[in-house]
C-alpha cells in the first residue's frame, strides 16, 4: 500500500484542508493518507479550538486514513523542531511520500533553496549572527539572512509562513537516511494569517476561529468554509463540552502561575531566556486579559508566537531539562484514529515500527508520554465543570477513533 | 500607656469579638488594645471571607487601637507555631498583657496544665509517640496523651479548640525572657465549631460565614450577630470587590496546580509528608469541587485543618526551605491599621522595637515579606476581573487604615 504523510493541525478542519487531502492523494497516487497532527496545544502556542480527539474525527471523516499525535515536545515548537518531529514520525510510519501546502507550490524551489544555503553556509550564518545583534528574532534573522543572499529572488520566498515550514520539512527529510519523496501543493485563496474571509468556500483556520468566537461560538458564519462533517463534530463538541477553547479561558491559570512561581523557577521553564522572567511576572500583575498581557510583553526580540509558546510552557510547567530528555528522538507514536484502510496499513507495518504505538493511555505507563498527559489535563482545565472532568477522563479512557 | 494584646482572625468581626475586646480592656485596665491578626489566609487553612484590610477596619471600628498582621509563615500553621508567632509579635510591640478567649475561662488551669506537663514530660512524650503509631494525627496525640495523664480532669480540658490555642499561648509566653501577663475570658454562648445559630446576638464566625454563603452572600441573616460597623464594612467589600472569598473560588487553581506540578516538586511543598503527594494528585483529577476533594483526601493521620493548610501552601507554592528561613524569628511587623491612640502608642515605642514596622509595602523591599505578598496576590486571584486587579493594587499601595 502506497502511503502519503501530511503534517497538520486542523484547527479546525476546513475546506482548504479537504482540498489538500484530496490533491495529495491524487498527486501521490496514495492508497493511504496519514496525518501527524498537533495535540491539544499548537505550534503557534495556542490551545486548539476543540480537542485532538474531535479534530482526529474531522480528519477521518474527510478522507484521512490514520491520525497520530505529534507529541507536545515537538508540536509546541518553532518550525525547525516541529518539522523534525513531524517528518520523523511520518518516516517511522514508513510513509513513501509526504505532501505539504505552501505559498510557492513548486517543490524544486525548496530543494534549490536548501542547496543554495548549504553552499553559502558561512555567509548565511554570519548574516544571521549580525542580524540577531540588531535585536530581531531568530526566525526573522534566518529569513532576512536568506533574502540577503537570495539576490534575484530565484528561490523560494522564505518570508511566507507555509514556505518556511515547508523548507524545514525538506531540510528534516533530507537528513533521513532514506528520505521520503516530497510534494507540495499551492495553497488556494486563503493566506495563513488571514483574519477576514476572502473567498466563498475557502478561508484560513485563523479567520474561521475568529468568526466562531466573535459569533459567540455560533457556527452559522463558518458553515460555508467547512465540510459538513466538521460542522457536525463542532456542534457535538459544543453540546458535550459546553465551550470551544480559547487562550482567554487559560489566562487566569497563567496569571496565577506567574504569581506563585519564583523567578528562579520561572527561569527553568523551557525557552525562557534570562531577563524575560521578570518582565512576565511584572506584567502578569498588571494585565486583566491574555490579550493585554501579550501586548505588554511583546518585544522585537521575541516573536508573538514564541511568546505564546512560552506562555503554554509556563501553563504546562514544562521545564528545560524535561524537554531536553524528549528532544533527541521520538519515543512513541500515539494513535488518535483510523479508518478501516488505516488499520490494515498499521497491522501490516506494526511489527517493523521503530517505536511503540500507544492506542490507549491507561495501558501504557511510559514516562515519556507524561508531558502529553499533563498537557491534556491542563487543556481540560479551560472548561468549566462538569465538562472539565469528562475531558480529563477522555485522555485515559478513549481508544483511537475507528471510522468505517 | 498600658497595653493589652489580642490574637485574632476576625473572620468576620462579630458580637462575640466585640464582647472580648471590651472585656479585655476592662479586665486588664488597658489604655491600648493591640490585635495581631492573620492575613488573607487563616490558621485553619482557609481564605478569609474578606481581605485583611477590611477585617482591620472592622477591628478599629469596634475598639481595637492597633492591628498588625501575623505573617503567613505563622498564621497558616498548627496551634504551636501560630502561638509562637502571635505571642512574639505582641511581646515585640511591648504589650504588658495579653488576653484570649477560651472554653475554660480560668487562667490558673492553663498554668497548672503547663507545669503538670513539664513535670510529667517523659510519660507525656512517650504517650504521644505510642498514640502516633496508631495512625492518629499529631494534635490528637497531644490531646489524648494529656488526657491520659490528667486522670482526674483537674487541669484545663485540652479537647476544646480554644483551650488548646490558649495552652500554646501560655507555653510560648512562658518561654519569653520577661513574659507578658496572661488573661483569659470565658467564651460566651457560641462554640468555636458551631455551624448553626444558638443565641440571639452571639454566634460563631463559622456559623456566620455559613449563613452568608448559604444566603447567596446576603447579609440579612447575620445582621443580628455582628456590629453595625462590620455590616457596613462587609457591604462595602461586596460592592467594591463583587464577592466574598470562599475555598471553592480557589479550587480551579489548586486543581490546576496539582495537575501541572511534578510529584517531586510537590513533595517540596511545606508540611507534605512522603506519600501524600500521590494521593493529592490522583484525587485532584477525580474531584469537581474543593469539598469533594477534601472528602476524598482525608485520613485519620491528617486532620482536616492540616490538609486545608497544606492546600493553601500548594496554592501559594510555599516550600519547605522557604518556610524554614522564616520560622526562626519574626523579621518584620506589618501595620494594617490604627486609631489615634494606637498611633500615639506606636510613636512612643517605635525606637525600641526589635523589628522594622512596615507601613506601606511599596517602600519596603524586604525578602522576608515576599511570602505575604504572594499570598495576597493569590488571595486576589479568587475574584473575577476587574475586582482581582484592584485587590492586587491594594497590597502595594494601601497605607495602614487610620481610624479617628
TrEMBL record, chains A, B:
Catalytic activity of the protein: cytidine(34) in elongator tRNA(Met) + acetate + ATP = N(4)-acetylcytidine(34) in elongator tRNA(Met) + AMP + diphosphate
GO biological process, one term: tRNA modification
SUPFAM superfamilies found in the cross-reference section: Nucleotidylyl transferase
One Gene Ontology molecular-function label: ligase activity, forming carbon-nitrogen bonds
UniProt-listed InterPro entries: Rossmann-like_a/b/a_fold, tRNA(Met)_cyd_acetate_ligase
PANTHER family: TRNA(MET) CYTIDINE ACETATE LIGASE
UniProt similarity note: Belongs to the TmcAL family.
Protein name: tRNA(Met) cytidine acetate ligase
Natural source organism: Heyndrickxia oleronia
